Amino acid sequence: MKKTLMALGTMAMLGSTANAQKVAFEEFDLDNGLHVVLHQDDSAPVIITSVMYHVGAKDEQPNRTGFAHFFEHLLFEGTKNIGKGEWFKLVTSNGGNNNANTSDDRTYYYEVFPSNNLELAIWMESERLMHPVIDQKGVDTQNEVVKEEKRLRIDNSPYGNLLKAVKQNMFKVHPYKWTTIGEMEHLDAATLEEFKAFNKKFYIPNNAVLVVAGQFDNAQAKTWIKKYFGAIPKGEPIKRQKFEEAPITTTINATWEDPNVQIPMTVTAYRTPSMKTKDARVLDMISSYLSEGKSSKLYKKMVDEKKVALQVNAFNYSQEDYGTYFIFGLPMGDVTSETLIKEIDEEIVNIQNNLISENDFQKLQNKFENNYVTSNSTVEGIAENLASYYLLYGDINLVNTEIEIYRSITREDIKEVAKKYLNPNQRLILNYGPAKEKTAK
Question: How confident is the model at residue 435 (pLDDT cuts 50, 70, 90)?
């Protein structure tokens, strides 16, 4: 009976994927190097205009971290033709919404408008690129905004510095060793000329991709894109330094004290390959197998059955150059870090030495088929996927074909990738705990 239900579930999932509409798109380059992608979707009268720039935290200098994230805020300050503080008013008064986000690898801006506001959306993004106003007043204003964000999300948030604690131990030469939000003293020390230089270097059409998605007239969209973006000068080609990390061959042991936590966290982290590789996708599957949902191996064993952990999780933090594979747990009561690591390692060794069951493998396939359908289920999701696959992966067609990579993964691949990357001598063990009370002298 169980096998029958599983087979029916699989057929339903495969059917939904097979019926998922292929993402059609058109792409072309302007003379200034801006890559343009158009995706028409008439299911709703909305349009998304987004621009992704190939600049993130890894493009910063070691003594000027946080610049990429800072610009995510700064470039909403206004432009030559959009007054200070008017950007958001202009968007909302025309029935739209907008946002932006930054990673170590890229910065992404987007607007969502009713479809009759396409020209406005295209003009606004061209203004951000062509006529940004970068002055001391705007820098000072956004400096305070970023500081408050860091206080709320990082400094005063339980486990808020977890990523920083891991990154600074996992990477010795690569800029991934610092966090996206950066250090506030670096922003405080920066001059206005340095901010202007950063903008001039990275915010150029030949370092970006523009995506227009939704309900629009194709010919009209092209006319407006060429009108508003075509006159923007091409920037100097960006020379990117390549950083290569030496392999980790001996366990790294580290600690971090956090005054905002009461329960210590045990973290193991492994350096993994670029998100562009098939191995990165296999690691995604291993993460899901280990800790996604209450029926996952680590959760069921450590939280439900043995009750040694309050929480346990595994995830593959994939990035353009390298990835970091995390497994972390919060102990139950007086359970030690050594006990948590022992329980986690047993499951990893089991994956390395034995093929996972056919039933578990089928569940993984179903999950990733569903993830694929979901990621392309909204126009906003499609727009970001198109930008990411073009700019970061170098293969925009992955918007339709990446699922084939996941489908090609076998149980043997899972076993071999676990053997290749998830070994004790290749990892960081981080004890992230409460701040210790200082003994009075």
Answer: confident
Q: How many domains does the chain have?
A: 2
Asked if residue 220 and residue 307 are part of one domain, the reply reads no
Final residue of a structural domain among 194, 229, 264: 229
Decide if pLDDT at 113 tops 70.
yes
**Domain co-membership, 176 together with 297:** no
pLDDT above 80 for 149: yes
Q: What is the mean pLDDT of residues 154-160?
A: 95
In tens, the pLDDT along 396-414 reads: 999 999 999 999 999 999 9
**Domain membership flag for residue 1:** no
311 and 406 belong to one structural domain: yes
Domain that holds residue 412: 252-434
The separation between the first and the last C-alpha atoms of the chain, rounded to the nearest angstrom, is 70
- The domain that contains 355 carries what CATH number? 3.30.830.10
Looking at the structure, tell me whether residues 268 and 187 fall in a common domain: no
345/386 same-domain check: yes
Q: Does residue 317 share a domain with residue 207? A: no
Domain membership of residue 244 (yes or no) is: no
Total-model pTM: 0.93
* Residue 160 sits in the same domain as residue 303: no
- pLDDT, one tens digit per residue, over 246-257 is 999 999 999 999
pLDDT category of residue 20 using cuts at 50, 70 and 90:
low
Tokens 């489908």 belong to 407
Q: pLDDT tens, 251-294?
A: 999 999 999 999 999 999 999 999 999 999 999 999 999 998 88
